[in-house]
Design goal:
Length: 155
């Protein structure tokens, strides 16, 4: 997966620009940069996506379990063209996307409801703890946070 030494960089290309294109190709669905063989680049990209899926699964075990054998394909399809925001945020964004498409399993809905009641997350900044009592409803699951404790109510 090394660059072709015979292919000169584009005029005005800095090392940082070339590195940014490589990173975009590996983690954000960008096109392969000049001088890189597509097959090894695709293999590295797939490995990074699997590693990322494992990180998300560590933060969202109930969502992962609820999706069961569909987990790898659901995550890889969702993450293919998105740069990572970290395991917690990637899982949160995926759970919300599944909820919006009415594809979130009940166990995943419960986990999302607990997160929504515990933390404040706007999909732009890192999640922050809630300071006041909160109520979160997600697809039939209701989580109540009071004095730092969360209770899940099943309807």
């Amino acid at each position: 997966m090394s660059a072709d030494p015979d292919e000169p960089p584009a005029p005005g290309d800095t090392l940082a620009e070339r590195q940014a294109r490589l990173v975009a190709a590996l983690v954000a669905g960008g096109p392969p940069p000049p001088g890189f063989a597509p097959a090894p680049l695709a293999a590295a990209r797939a490995a990074l996506l699997r590693k990322r899926a494992g990180e998300v699964a560590r933060h969202w075990p109930l969502l992962t379990a609820a999706l069961g054998p569909r987990w790898p394909s659901a995550f890889l399809t969702w993450a293919a063209d998105r740069p990572t925001s970290g395991g917690l945020r990637d899982g949160w964004d995926l759970a919300r996307a599944l909820r919006d498409r009415a594809e979130l399993p009940p166990l995943g809905a419960e986990e999302l409801a607990v997160r929504e009641a515990t933390l404040r997350y706007d999909a732009r900044r890192a999640p922050r703890p809630r300071r006041f009592p909160a109520l979160a409803r997600v697809d039939g699951a209701v989580a109540v946070q009071l004095a730092g404790r969360v209770r899940l109510l099943r309807v």
